[in-house]
Amino acid sequence: MAALAYNLGKREINHYFSVRSAKVLALVAVLLLAACHLASRRYRGNDSCEYLLSSGRFLGEKVWQPHSCMMHKYKISEAKNCLVDKHIAFIGDSRIRQLFYSFVKIINPQFKEEGNKHENIPFEDKTASVKVDFLWHPEVNGSMKQCIKVWTEDSIAKPHVIVAGAATWSIKIHNGSSEALSQYKMNITSIAPLLEKLAKTSDVYWVLQDPVYEDLLSENRKMITNEKIDAYNEAAVSILNSSTRNSKSNVKMFSVSKLIAQETIMESLDGLHLPESSRETTAMILMNVYCNKILKPVDGSCCQPRPPVTLIQKLAACFFTLSIIGYLIFYIIHRNAHRKNKPCTDLESGEEKKNIINTPVSSLEILLQSFCKLGLIMAYFYMCDRANLFMKENKFYTHSSFFIPIIYILVLGVFYNENTKETKVLNREQTDEWKGWMQLVILIYHISGASTFLPVYMHIRVLVAAYLFQTGYGHFSYFWIKGDFGIYRVCQVLFRLNFLVVVLCIVMDRPYQFYYFVPLVTVWFMVIYVTLALWPQIIQKKANGNCFWHFGLLLKLGFLLLFICFLAYSQGAFEKIFSLWPLSKCFELKGNVYEWWFRWRLDRYVVFHGMLFAFIYLALQKRQILSEGKGEPLFSNKISNFLLFISVVSFLTYSIWASSCKNKAECNELHPSVSVILAFILIRNIPGYARSVYSSFFAWFGKISLELFICQYHIWLAADTRGILVLIPGNPMLNIIVSTFIFVCVAHEISQITNDLAQIIIPKDNSSLLKRLACIAAFFCGLLILSSIQDKSKH
Length: 795
Fold this sequence. Notes:
Number of helices: 32
Radius of gyration: 33 Å
Shape: elongated
Strand order of the largest sheet: 4-5-3-6-7-8
Largest sheet: 6 strands, mixed
Distance between the termini: 71 Å
Structural class: alpha/beta
Oligomer: single chain
Helix content: 55-70%
Strand content: 5-15%
């Protein structure tokens, strides 16, 4: 009765809400969100530097998140590279001196805070020719004015960056009098034109005063109240912003430190000066403001201009635009033709006569429609991760942000279960289910930033290895059973694997190796194909007649293992092979193939084990050693129970080992992923009842797992997976729900587009296929030539 009610309810839901209606809703959501963000940018401005300097919040205790953009954490080498031959000057009181020390420690962490605090403090790094000075001017007065005035003279070398600010000293020595505030206004009014003049050639920042923690202030500082500080800040903002009559002031207000201080001033030792962690955050913001536009770090979207559109991107935009126009013309013509064939009324009988004409959908129409939809989807990709239309935020890991979604999808997966069509080991429904839950876990791992938590990382390593294991198992099984080594099969697989990635390489201006998993699977597929297709071609039908062929296949697999070992332990040979042109264009990242070697070596034996497992399983199946009937255990009860016990122990042992792992590099090298994968397969397949059911929820996602993995780079995550896409600011939970809904709809649509195009572009007829391959080869040659021209123009 419960099952009947469930099926009726499911049918009712599907009647009103289908995948098609979900995609329409996603399209409407994208259009509305794009319109809202455009209006917001127009109203509030499009300068992310202003957001970085003025707004943000803490993620957890010490991670600062600017509004709408991502902040990069600069390393020593990066800071020196940015500031080479630069001069930075800090002018002000003890709070500015604190900022100076924190800024210098980014360049040289060993720099000590020592010496007379009420004097100028110089710093110079001769290796990078970086000069940073602190100039002690605790009050905005004639002394500070004279210092700034010297820099305005043409003959004097000006600092590239000037950071100034002062007020608390004036409040203290004048006992918070109103006359002191009036004098402050007069002095800052006289300095404002000088700062404005300097700001035309240098970056000038005026640091607003942070609040104090009045309960901790000493007796001689009790007059420094937050009310007085606010009054001084209002005076500085009002005067500096009005220093130019007809245009916006070039002097930038550094007000974000106020927000940081409001959250952390309670940790201050004296109530006046910020704790060290807050000073470091403020200094890092200053580094981002200046250096992001120079070094352009991927995870530092604040203050970065939109990347210039390349020639290849322009050509891609033209192609998709023409496809959209072509499809619209085709649709209008088709619609007019359809109107002419509308049912006509018989004047004698008064009944309608139907002109039954079954017009088949032409390949041209499918082609134009597919490229039209793909063009719109790529426009969304570009808006999300290149055009800076939508916001981006840094990731921040907490245990709850990872484990709560895991529990949630597990419950959904268990709830939506159905009977399998067949009960064989690793049947199609089961492998789709396996891919689905693995992909969902990997997605949660990426968006939660769980890579910083080593035990979670080690468990995710197993899932990536399991994907490759399935590659070895699935493709070996197909070639072994079918014996289909034709070019059509190879082209179909390669097209489905690589189509989306090739399009993204063009549209998003990223190298092929950037989407590392697709090159990995593609290369392993070709390795499997070549291994089995080379003479002598050994397939199941041939081997069944003579057991000698089984030994021949094992010999082939042995040579494959030796080849893998050779490449794994000979980095030089590996790099020479993949550094050859045009392979280098596919596998290089940042000018070398080290990343490709690292990724390939990480799970180098997993595909081989997948092939070996497929061979052993199919051999046992052929000899009817396995019991794969519905409800039957795979082996006898004793053997089944023993194997299940060993599998559970393997799982627990691995979890303990992964949780105790301290060093990522060592654990990667010793990673026993194959044992865990085999344990999972046995637990999932030995009990007959477990083989007879599968989760339709996970299986649905498994069918689009490749698209989900690739699409997450740009339309769910942001900044090439370094951050999170923000469609709805201020509400993280709602943002995740909406962005996930759109992301899944897009991935599903791309999967359908890829399948449609594969049927058209890869024909079954060999002569037609060879012509298409020649066209595809010409296309890639042109792409390589254009890419080389672009690279030369960049350098």
